[in-house]
Amino acid sequence: MSKKGTIGVTSDNIFPVIKKFLYSDHEIFLREIVSNAVDATQKLRTLASVGEFKGETGDLRVTVTIDEAARTITVSDRGVGMTEEEVEKYINQIAFSSAEEFLEKYKDDKAAIIGHFGLGFYSAFMVSERVDVITRSFRDGAEAVKWSCDGSPEFTLEATDKAERGTDIVMHIDEENSEFLGREKIESLLTKYCKFLPVPIIFGKKQEWKNGKMQDTDEDNQINDTHPAWTKKPADLKDEDYKTFYRALYPMSDEPLFWIHLNVDYPFNLTGILYFPKIKNNLELQRNKIQLYSNQVYVTDEVQGIVPDFLTLLHGVIDSPDIPLNVSRSYLQSDSNVKKISAHITKKVADRLEEIFKNDRSTFEEKWDSLRLFVQYGMLTDEKFYDRATKFFLLSDIEGHKYTLDEYRTLIEGVQTDRDGQVVYLYATDREAQYSHVKRATDKGYSVLVLDGQLDTHTVSQLERKLEKTHFVRVDSDTINNLIRKEQPSSEVKLSDVERSSLIKLFEARLPREEKKHFNVAFESLGTEAEAVLITQGEFMRRMRDMAQLQPGMSFYGELPDSYNLVLNADHPLIARVLAGEKEAVEPSLTELRARVAELQAEEQKLSAEVQGKKPEEIPAATKEAQENNAMELAKTEGSINEQLTTYAQGNELIGQLIDLALLGSGLLTGEPLAEFIRRSQRLL
């Protein structure tokens, strides 16, 4: 028997389509061919279990061999094999799928079958110049046949010799894909895609170092674990079994915090184990660690869009026959079963965290720093998870004590409620850099939280939206009296306009000149015991800048300079000393200038009154000229005053010292300015 024919396809040549468009990655061919071999093996097991195959199944395994000289890769199985008619139907007619038909016939046992691989067999042509199929059916009296095709629609089908049932797929690798003839390359692909297939996958012999080189031993090199942990019942596994499996998946990772064993058979099939890793403070480094399988066949580790975004921070395995294999990611994202699975996993994760929190809170608190980023990300991106997570989300104070949202509100609302009824949550992002601000708050009897994580700014904004009458304020965003405004301030700043103006110019003259920093001089009456000068940074703009780092749409805020307030305590003796020094050294020379400024300002008001209510064309030219001349002289006179104040300030070490002390207290004094501060301090001592 020998025949030639044309493969039943609707295109003139299906193979260029396969090579270029059907699969995005050529290496997938090995998964497809090996998976088909496992499929055929599982079919034989199913037939034997229902009595349709009464022979000896024997050693059911799939072997993969390379012949570099012949430039072939061969995948062999001892499964059901095919008759000539089945080759005609399942190889030549691309529209059919033996797996699909088999599943329908044996639907009660379909969990043992890998499933519908579509055009999987034809993926071999992505790397091959010719593919041979040598097969013999398990049926009594069946004869072996050989099918061969060189990548065109034409094929040959002829009788051949084959002693045992099963199928050999022989791929003659083309020059362009010679890399797939290397032992290390094939072993790495088998490990990646076939590590947990339910039938032993054998690739040559295990090797050992002997006589200066790697040599084969007598032991078969089995690639896979046919019974991975997630396929077993949770009752049959101990904690060490879960940890051992985790080490097999992620050999270089730290021990996981917790895990969830998934085992669902309705309304969809889902098994798997998800681990909570020790998450570092960086979202992007954590993704793509969940491995997606379909009946133990590896699909992908890029699960973004398939599971909720925050779940991509978990590690582990999800396995479901309801997840289709050879489809696009966009199809997976819209698949109804995938959506149901995603929602179920979200619920199970929240339930597991709540269970651990309720049953072993001390352990949960110990591991909170590693869980926090994950929980926050879930709360920010998944509304249902937020509703569940509020029961176990924790806030940490400066002393390291941890509280649920309800517990902390109860703790602070009596002391930290402002005059508008807002409960104010004070926090620090760096307890060391903001130490002086933290101490002022704690000395006043306030509680201070530590919010130093990557997502804390976003979490704060979310909690303000969700929780009634709640406001988060960083401890360095204002002076202590203004952080939680209880009532109108009792003491006012007792400085004249001239004194205020002089102090502003004196301190502005010594402030740092940096492109990304802007300072505004302000005054408050803080009492003689408070600092003479301190620096605050407004809550709104700082928070917007922080959020801009993670949200591209807010990049505008990220480009704005940091804005700080340099607050002068008008009650402090050192501020009075600066003012007295200026009055003694500079004011005598400014008397005439200030008098002239007063005259010019009076003239300006007079001229403004004359033109009030008039249109520009109705104002006499002489009046316009007088206004311009007056404005020019006023600017010049004020400039002379400012110049003398600036000159005085630049030579005044007390002003420089006070500013640098404030910068130092806020962590803003570094580099050369810090070195100059140290030298000046030594001089003053």
UniProtKB/TrEMBL annotation:
InterPro entries membership: HATPase_C_sf (IPR036890), HATPase_dom (IPR003594), Heat_shock_protein_90_CS (IPR019805), Hsp90_fam (IPR001404), Hsp90_N (IPR020575), Ribosomal_Su5_D2-typ_SF (IPR020568)
Any GO MF annotation of the entry: unfolded protein binding
Keyword field: ATP-binding, Chaperone, Cytoplasm, Nucleotide-binding, Stress response
Annotated ATP binding sites: E32, N36, D77, M82, T167, R329
Main location: cytoplasm
Record CDD domains: HATPase_Hsp90-like
Compartment(s) where it occurs, according to its Swiss-Prot or TrEMBL record: Cytoplasm
Domain of life: Bacteria
Annotated Histidine kinase/HSP90-like ATPase domain residues: 25-177
Region (A), start-end ranges: 1-329
Annotated spans, C: 550-685
Gene3D superfamilies, per database record: 3.30.230.80, 3.40.50.11260, Histidine kinase-like ATPase, C-terminal domain
SUPFAM superfamilies associated with the record: ATPase domain of HSP90 chaperone/DNA topoisomerase II/histidine kinase, Ribosomal protein S5 domain 2-like
GO CC annotation: cytoplasm
Quaternary state and interactors: Homodimer.
PANTHER family listed in its UniProt record: HEAT SHOCK PROTEIN 90 FAMILY MEMBER
Similarity field: Belongs to the heat shock protein 90 family.
Function, in words: Molecular chaperone. Has ATPase activity.
Cited HAMAP family: HSP90
NCBIfam families referenced in this protein's UniProt entry, alphabetically: PRK05218.1
Name of the molecule in the record: Chaperone protein HtpG
Source organism per UniProt: Porphyromonas loveana
